[in-house]
Design goal:
mainly beta, 3-stranded antiparallel β-sheet
């Protein structure tokens, strides 16, 4: 764990702002806080028929977890 970090990511919808909020903090057990981010974003919902999902929005890598 000396050369890695643990990320805490929190997202929520802010109905008052009409936006989504996000807060990210990454910490290392040896060095403490590494970096963080706090902000907001909008979402554009698009209709997709069947499995016609554009390739640029699919995950680059998938990992099966239990």
């Amino acid at each position: 764990m000396a050369f890695s970090g643990v990320a805490d990511v929190r997202e929520c919808a802010d109905d008052k702002m009409g936006r989504f909020r996000i807060r990210v903090s990454v910490q290392n057990t040896v060095w403490g806080p590494l970096f963080g981010y706090s902000g907001s974003f909008d979402v554009e919902w698009r209709a997709v028929e069947g499995n016609n999902i554009p390739g640029h929005v699919l995950p680059q890598r998938q990992e099966l977890r239990e």
